[in-house]
Write a structure and sequence with these properties.
about 475 residues, about 55% helix
């Protein structure tokens, strides 16, 4: 039976990678009539919301999708072709008008994810620089081989997305199959969990676009995988764990809670190896992130931290998407905070139109497993159960941070799910494995599991052609008139 299970893992692994590769090979931005409107004839345009206007001329065909990935692409080009983090420049005329030029203003690279230094009037991406610099290194090699993006965008962009997303996800799924086989107890539970990993999460959905969520998720899993392989917690193992945990925190800021929790757990279990192995390795990518950020904009503070805070003029410059003029009414998900309470936002983030649990109910199973595992907190000694407890604590901290504390109430903008939590996906799958074996013991349990899996696969597949689109729940609620901020 073990040979049959391993064959099933391999089949699902091949199918998943083939599907992601095919989607990347056909990636192209599509303009949908359903979310565009004609240019409104309004005598007083300052008092109405901006709408997505149907292009008057044929747009530049591009294998890019949303502001998020186009902002990164503009920076990658600027780094390699111009030797700078600057992606644009504003030239103000004597009459008060201005002219914007640069990579971010070229056809196909337009993005709201940009800021302008009010002192220099130079534009920068809002994205943390470490991942972008790593990708720029890959593009530099391709550029040296005579493949500039401008003339070879279909090949270069798709190849870079494939190497950034499909290769890491392929590694994760290959290693996760071993974890499932070693830690699962039943055939059904093992295959259910692996099917969920392959088809029931948003990591595969986002595999066709440049993003930080996929590499952060893989890095978080690799940090834990090092601990779950058994054996002594040697200096090398903990250094490897620390490096990947540090990368996860660099790619996804809330993963700093994961890094801190891992540090405390390992200090308890192996203090010397943690101090001299885990800690220096974990600090390396964080130091690189801070250094690159300072090099880019002269400040170690992430650029995106300036929104809604001191330094907000970086975001709210004249002509910016984020500019709010007196009396102007803004609509769309970026302005959800103007229309709903913090409680409504928290509900929608968990159980509503961008709900972690409503869109992907397999995570209900994961949290049930983690809560049950807490009963063993006083008697648990094995590293697997301790890691599960750690994941539970980190998950609650991160969810509370986004649902109750953070000021950015826009669900991550135009996105098919609660993308700020995607990096937790591989960690939650470890918990799914625990409860899947229990569901396997009864027909009702298996039915519940399959229903949760079916909804999760549906949600992850719904925006398969463009992950930077609203979830199906949001579209249904908008169609039903239940979302006051509209399109």
């Amino acid at each position: 039976m073990e040979d049959l299970r391993r064959s099933c893992y391999r089949i699902m692994w091949v199918v998943t990678l083939a599907v992601m590769t095919a989607r990347i090979c056909s990636a192209e931005r599509v303009y949908e009539p359903s979310i565009h409107k004609p240019d409104p004839s309004n005598p007083n345009p300052e008092t109405v919301t901006a709408v997505r206007i149907w292009p008057a001329t044929r747009p530049q065909p591009m294998p890019t999708f949303g502001s998020n990935d186009r902002s990164r692409w503009a920076t990658i080009r600027a780094l390699v072709e111009d030797g700078t983090f600057v992606i644009g420049k504003r030239e103000t005329q004597p009459d008060g008008t201005w002219r914007d030029t640069g990579r971010i203003f070229e056809p196909g690279y337009d993005s709201v994810d940009k800021v302008m230094d009010p002192k220099t009037q130079l534009f920068y991406s809002t994205k943390p620089p470490l991942l972008t610099v790593l990708l720029a290194g890959e593009y530099w090699l391709l550029h040296q081989c005579g493949l500039p993006i401008d003339a070879n965008r279909w090949l270069v962009m798709r190849f870079m997305v494939w190497t950034q997303n499909v290769l890491p996800l392929g590694l994760f799924l290959w290693l996760f199959a071993r974890t499932v086989e070693q830690n699962g107890r039943t055939d059904w539970g093992r295959l259910f969990t692996y099917a969920a990993a392959c088809f029931g999460t948003f990591l595969g959905t986002f595999a066709i676009t440049l993003n930080n969520h996929v590499p952060a998720a893989v890095a978080a899993y690799l940090a834990v995988h090092v601990l779950l392989t058994g054996g002594q917690l040697t200096l090398l193992r903990l250094a490897t764990c620390g490096l990947f945990a540090g990368l996860a925190a660099s790619f996804e800021l809330p993963a700093a809670a994961f890094l801190a929790a891992l540090f405390l757990l390992l200090m308890w279990r192996a203090p010397a190896a943690t101090l001299f192995g885990f800690l220096p390795a974990a600090l390396l990518p964080i130091a690189l992130q801070l250094g690159l950020n300072y090099t880019a904009v002269g400040d170690v503070q992430p650029v995106y931290a300036k929104i809604g805070a001191a330094g907000r003029e970086w975001y709210e410059y004249p002509g910016s998407h984020w500019e709010r003029k007196p009396g102007q009414v803004k609509r769309g998900i970026d302005w959800a905070k103007d229309y709903e309470s913090r409680g409504t936002y928290a509900f929608n983030l968990l159980l509503g139109h961008h709900g972690v649990f409503s869109l992907t109910p397999i995570w209900l199973l994961a949290f049930a497993a983690m809560i049950r595992n807490l009963a063993k907190i006083t008697s648990t000694k094995d590293i697997c159960s301790q890691v599960l407890i750690l994941i539970m604590i980190v998950s609650v901290v991160v969810i509370v941070f986004y649902a109750a504390i953070t000021r950015t109430v826009n669900y991550g903008g135009w996105t098919s799910g609660a993308r700020w939590l995607f990096w937790l996906t591989p960690l939650w799958l470890l918990a799914v494995l625990r409860i899947a074996d229990d569901l396997a013991t009864s027909k009702i349990g298996r039915a519940i599991g399959l229903i949760c899996l079916a909804v999760s696969v549906f949600s992850a597949s719904y925006p398969a052609w463009n992950p930077w689109r609203h979830p199906w729940l949001y579209n249904w609620m908008e169609y039903s008139g239940m979302i006051p901020y509209g399109k």
